[in-house]
Amino acid sequence: MLNDVTFGQYYPAKSFVHNLDPRAKIVFVIAYIVAIFLAKNFYALGALLLVTVFFILLARVPFGRVLRSVKMILFIIVFTAILNLFFYSGESAYEPLVDWWIFTITYESIVNMVFLALRLFLLVLGTSVLTLTTTPVALTDGLESLLTPLKWIRFPVHELALIMSIALRFIPTLTDETNRIVAAQKARGADFETGGLIRRAKSMIPVLVPLLVSAFRRAEDLGDAMDARCYRGSKGRTKYKKLVFSWRDALGVLFFGGVITGIVFMNLYLGAKFDIIGQIASLF
Q: What is the pLDDT of residues 105-161, one digit of tens each?
């Protein structure tokens, strides 16, 4: 049922991306997201797609494993794109293709729909590379290190990083637990695949109740284990592994700096996303 959930799952491999400092990878993902939202035309998004494919190849992660993370939220991408198709409020230089009741479809709305879907696709694709190539522990250490300045205002940086690490760690665990509960309920005659939306929602109650009980039990066991090990937060804690910024990370910083600069120049000199409409219209 939930075998396609890859978010939070680490894919072990020996690659350039796996060996990067987790702090650098977090900064790279932030820069990647900024570049996606800076992109104003399809040329820029195409360049970002090439960058994403390049890093997936560099990470030696199977494409199918990365694409599964997109399959997880495919419904959200499609739903958001359709909303933009029917309710796009920008001005149109062309006659509407469809104008019925409150729905209006124009060339611009179609282009905007494709542009938004591609942007969301790249957003999920790029961020999934971070979780696939970085262990939850490394992500926690990197995030805690980046947020260290907040300690000056007594912000609980360590506790926040620990909560995020536990949340990431429990995603695949709860996914496996859900699959086991669904299989057990199907063996008892439960039907999750037929009927309308309301009936399917009701059929999920026998899954959600034991899942919540299991999640609370695991949380209680984890709390007891932390108490048994005398966990007292960040006070007096030391690091077994020290994070070191290497030449790989410096090379990555230069690369992503060049990517953002390239996106800005593409926005300035290659026009807006709707310019492609004129190119298509000139063919007819």
A: 776 777 778 888 888 888 888 888 888 888 877 888 888 888 888 878 888 887 887
Q: Give the residues across from 100 on adjacent strands.
A: 103
Give CA–CA dist 140/241, Å, rounded: 12
CA distances from 70 to 4, 95, 110, 121, 138 (A): 9, 34, 21, 7, 23
Query: Quick check: helix, strand or coil at residue 120?
Result: helix
- Gap between the Cα atoms of 29 and 195, Å rounded: 41
Q: Tell me how far apart the alpha carbons of residues 148 and 189 are, in angstroms, rounded to a whole number.
A: 53
Give the 3-state secondary structure of residue 107.
helix
The CA distances from residue 151 to 47, 158, 165, 244, in Å, are: 38, 9, 19, 21
Helices (runs of H) and strands (runs of E) counted in the chain: 11, 2
* SS3 state at 99: strand
Question: Do 63 and 132 contact (CB within 8 A), yes or no?
Answer: no
Please give the backbone phi and psi of residue 272, each rounded to the nearest 5 degrees, phi first.
-85, 170
95: how many CB neighbours lie within 10 A of its CB? 8
**Which residues contact residue 233 at a Cβ distance below 8 angstroms, ignoring those fewer than 6 apart?**
156, 158, 159
